Structures are given as structure tokens and as C-alpha cells.
């Protein structure tokens, strides 16, 4: 069964509070999402493997460590996932970026796919799918399906806020995909919005409400 990590780091929790606040405007919202994505990526990359190298310091030779050349890919679920890409790339600037375009039908809440573009070496890469919101889980499950259909084998999912329903749906459909969350909320309302949540992540990021 996939593991679920809820990040309790004080900086993540502090910034998430202002992301939730309805009085936070678009500019600040976008900056905070970017910062939290960086902090979450710092935690997620904790398990990257290292290899030993030798480096000449001004004083002598040191045995030291570098990351062992893992191939990473960041995959935002459009549109709101775009808000987390730059923050993630801050820490892993050589990662490739794939895109999965999905919108949630407002009536049925079912995801509708409209765009997919992934790095060509999809089978060799480890992917981190990013989206601020994991609500019913339909979008995350569909995005991960889409990656797996194209050959991806090693996938993590990272979001800002999740509802228990969404976590359960991803765990059931993709038991191999670990889930990383900044805030695990109470429930969904009758419109499929996370309660208390932060509202519509895409609209708040891009000012489209
Ligand atoms: O877990 P789910 O019930 O599928 O809901 C979560 C999805 O809903 C939002 O996207 P939305 O459909 O609003 O598209 P947008 O990013 O273009 O605004 C959000 O960014 C997720 O992708
Ligand atoms: O609360 C929610 C649920 C889905 N999508 C959002 O942007 N917010
Ligand atoms: Mg939206």
C-alpha cells in the first residue's frame, strides 16, 4: 500500500495558512505556492541516493558525496499544477517537465483529459506528479494512469491539500504511488470542494474567478 506523508514542517504549515486565507491575493498566493513547493521538494528528495567522489579542497583531498545521477521528471496537472513547477525546479533544476492537461467536469466531477506531453525517456525516469488539490482523486488517478499507460514505472504524487476521499482513491487505484501532502483536510462538500481547503486553486493562482 502506498505511503502517505503529511509534512508537519513549521515553515510549510505557516505558509499553508496564508495560502488558505481568502484575503490572500493572487500575487501572494502564487508566491506562497511556489515557496511551499520548494520546501516540499526538499523533504521528498530526502531519499535520493548518493555516490562517493573525490574533491580537491584548498587544503587536501576529501571523499565527498554527489547525487547518483537519478533521472527525475516533474509532471504538473494543468492548470493549477503549473503553480508548483518552478518551486520544484528550484531544487532539481535538471529535471524534465511533462504536462498532463485535465479539467474536472463541474457536473459529474469526472476528469476530462485534453493534453499530454511527457519526456521521451519516460520509462527511465522517476516522476513527481504535482497538483495543489487532491479532492475526489479523479484527476490524480487519471494523470497517473496516463503516465503509466506511456510506460512510467516510478511515480510519486505531491499536493498542497488533500481530502481523505482523494487519498483513498489514489491508494486504491495506484497502491505503488506514495502521496506527499502539506495539509490533510476534513472532507469534501456537495460540489466536490475540499473543506476547509483553499477554494479553487486554479482560479486563485491565475486570477480567473
Ligand atoms: O481530485 P479531483 O476531484 O479530481 O479535483 C482536483 C482537481 O481539480 C482542480 O482542477 P480543475 O478541474 O479545477 O482544473 P484547473 O486546474 O484547470 O482549474 C485541481 O487543480 C485538481 O486537478
Ligand atoms: O477544493 C478544491 C477541489 C478541487 N479543485 C480545487 O481547486 N479546489
Ligand atoms: Mg480549477
Folded structure, characterized:
The protein is an alpha/beta fold and 209 residues long. It is 31% helix and 32% strand. The chain has 6 helices and 13 strands. The chain has helices at 10-20, 26-44, 85-91, 138-149, 164-173, 201-206, and strands spanning 4-6, 50-56, 61-67, 72-78, 96-97, 99-104, 111-117, 126-130, 133-134, 154-162, 178-184, 187-188, 194-195. The strands form 3 sheets. Strands 1, 4, 5, 6, 7, 8, 9, 10 and 11 form a 9-stranded mixed sheet that branches. The protein has a two-stranded antiparallel sheet with strand order 2-3. α1 runs antiparallel to α2 and α2 packs across α3. It is globular, with a radius of gyration of 18 Å. The mean pLDDT is 97. The structure holds 1-O-pyrophosphono-5-O-phosphono-alpha-D-ribofuranose, uracil and magnesium ion (MG). Magnesium ion (MG) is lined by residues 80, 200, 202-203.
Cα-to-Cα separation, first versus last residue = 38 Å
Q: What small molecules does the structure contain?
A: 1-O-pyrophosphono-5-O-phosphono-alpha-D-ribofuranose, uracil, magnesium ion
Find the structural class using helix and strand composition.
alpha/beta
Mean of all residue-level pLDDT scores: 97
Q: In DSSP terms, counting alpha (H) and pi (I) runs of 4 or more, how many helices?
A: 6
Rg value: 18 Å
Largest sheet: 9 strands, mixed
Order of helices and strands: EHHEEEHEEEEEHEHEEEH
* Uncertain residue ranges: none
The tally of strands reads 13
- Considering DSSP H and I runs of 4 or more, what fraction of the residues is helical? 25-40%
From the spread of the alpha carbons, the general shape counts as: globular
> Strand portion, in percent?
25-35%
Amino acid at each position: 500500500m502506498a505511503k502517505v506523508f503529511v509534512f508537519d514542517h513549521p515553515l510549510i504549515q505557516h505558509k499553508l495558512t496564508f495560502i488558505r486565507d481568502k484575503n490572500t491575493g493572487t500575487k501572494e498566493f502564487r508566491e506562497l505556492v511556489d515557496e511551499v513547493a520548494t520546501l516540499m521538494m526538499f523533504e521528498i528528495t530526502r531519499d535520493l541516493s548518493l555516490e562517493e567522489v573525490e574533491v580537491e579542497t584548498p587544503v587536501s583531498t576529501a571523499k565527498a558525496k554527489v547525487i547518483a545521477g537519478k533521472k527525475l521528471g516533474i509532471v504538473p496537472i494543468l492548470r493549477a499544477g503549473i503553480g508548483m513547477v518552478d518551486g520544484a525546479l528550484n531544487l532539481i533544476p535538471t529535471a524534465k517537465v511533462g504536462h498532463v492537461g485535465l479539467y474536472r467536469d463541474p457536473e459529474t466531477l469526472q476528469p476530462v483529459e485534453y493534453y499530454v506531453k511527457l519526456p521521451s525517456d519516460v520509462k527511465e525516469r522517476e516522476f513527481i506528479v504535482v497538483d495543489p488539490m487532491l479532492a475526489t482523486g479523479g484527476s490524480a488517478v487519471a494523470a497517473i494512469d496516463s503516465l503509466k499507460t506511456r510506460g512510467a514505472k516510478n511515480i510519486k504524487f505531491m499536493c498542497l491539500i488533500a481530502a481523505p476521499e482523494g487519498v483513498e482513491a489514489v491508494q486504491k487505484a495506484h497502491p505503488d504511488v506514495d502521496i506527499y501532502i502539506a495539509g490533510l483536510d476534513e472532507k469534501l462538500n456537495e460540489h466536490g470542494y475540499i473543506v476547509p481547503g483553499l477554494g479553487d486553486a486554479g482560479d486563485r493562482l491565475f486570477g480567473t474567478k
